[in-house]
DNA sequence: CGCTCTATTGAACCGCATCAACGAACGTGG
DNA sequence: CCACGTTCGTTGATGCGGTTCAATAGAGCG
């Protein structure tokens, strides 16, 4: 599942199930591209480790980050045979590649086919949540939502306070939320000053008060 | 395909193919609901005639129109067994219902199964386009984009100028684009004053200059 | 015909973008 | 290893686009 403002009861797809099939494992260095907008879709990919970024740009340079892909996420669903986003790695990343025909021809590998369909449906649902965030939430709500979703998705519940790694830059977050880097910074600073988060260097955030964060994500205060 | 800012080479799915199967035809009066958020998903639906509206609301009443469904569109894709939007009819509407299991069990009806998967993939692609619009376009660009997409989707190319029916209210358009009704009005008025459109009553717009409209949709001039 | 709801237009405000300056982190070459 | 340059992050000041509030006009319906 992609990083969006979903309500959390989704599970990543067991990598083991795929590892057992010995699907080819692909490695992507930080900054390397997996595909570009317009490329033919030959494979789908399941992320094993690392984080990727899916982006789309307008001619005038405006950019939208469509999604961040985390381990367990399936990326590269085709429409009309070509990729409609660019995809690159935010850190070193390993992926399993799955021939596209598995998605479209259920007889090739019925179990995997069914997993892919479930992933696509999850994706639609998650994107619907993201619409609400992009269209109807304020900047502070967006940033709080982003951290909340990330926490649900990759938070480590065994430690307190929970620490989030942010492999993406501030401008990636901004382009994901429809904001500017300055606004993202200011919203993070506000959360820090309210002692809801602690900022441990550029790419690490500790969540000190998860329920306060969740409240701000839904606009229940400020 | 849903009404989003896609780049137009998608085709609706031939209703004939389904009519031939004599799938049950359901009728929905204007204003009637097809399902609510939280309902169990038992069927998917293909729209034969009419227009439906998919919406989601926050507790505080903020609303996002996720999509408008036009003839040929397939709606009701499940994630985790329940609907995540409300769906109601903007005018009298007829739909074919398809048992959900056709989507998930390819053996029941392989051809239809494959049609549904293609529809879901289209949907993902169209939603990605919509992200760019919600996150990165100005109000005038959003309104121009909306009209442009509607024109590609349902425009009647046999008449000149092309006339668009708008069965949805201004606030539906606003909630689809992440704006207010006032802003939608002002943007429409601006297009009218620029003689790009003509407003023929509340629910009809004639597009006088399609290329000027397309340019504004991409921000190439005011 | 009158009531209600939606659309339109105007005026004022505000949230976020923009512009600008500074600081921190990082990589490179000496 | 340090000096330097470059990129990224943070903070402040200002402006503007779109919201909010308010009033009027128009459409739909009993």
UniProtKB/TrEMBL annotation, chains A, B:
<dbReference type="InterPro" id="IPR012318">
    <property type="entry name" value="HTH_CRP"/>
</dbReference>
<dbReference type="GO" id="GO:0003677">
    <property type="term" value="F:DNA binding"/>
</dbReference>
<dbReference type="Pfam" id="PF13545">
    <property type="entry name" value="HTH_Crp_2"/>
</dbReference>
<keyword id="KW-0805">Transcription regulation</keyword>
<protein>
    <submittedName>
        <fullName>Transcriptional regulator</fullName>
    </submittedName>
</protein>
<dbReference type="GO" id="GO:0005829">
    <property type="term" value="C:cytosol"/>
</dbReference>
<feature type="domain" description="Cyclic nucleotide-binding">
    <location>
        <begin position="26"/>
        <end position="76"/>
    </location>
</feature>
<feature type="domain" description="HTH crp-type">
    <location>
        <begin position="137"/>
        <end position="211"/>
    </location>
</feature>
<keyword id="KW-0238">DNA-binding</keyword>
<dbReference type="Pfam" id="PF00027">
    <property type="entry name" value="cNMP_binding"/>
</dbReference>
<dbReference type="InterPro" id="IPR000595">
    <property type="entry name" value="cNMP-bd_dom"/>
</dbReference>
<keyword id="KW-0804">Transcription</keyword>
<dbReference type="InterPro" id="IPR050397">
    <property type="entry name" value="Env_Response_Regulators"/>
</dbReference>
<dbReference type="GO" id="GO:0003700">
    <property type="term" value="F:DNA-binding transcription factor activity"/>
</dbReference>
<dbReference type="InterPro" id="IPR036388">
    <property type="entry name" value="WH-like_DNA-bd_sf"/>
</dbReference>
<dbReference type="InterPro" id="IPR014710">
    <property type="entry name" value="RmlC-like_jellyroll"/>
</dbReference>
<dbReference type="InterPro" id="IPR036390">
    <property type="entry name" value="WH_DNA-bd_sf"/>
</dbReference>
<dbReference type="InterPro" id="IPR018490">
    <property type="entry name" value="cNMP-bd_dom_sf"/>
</dbReference>
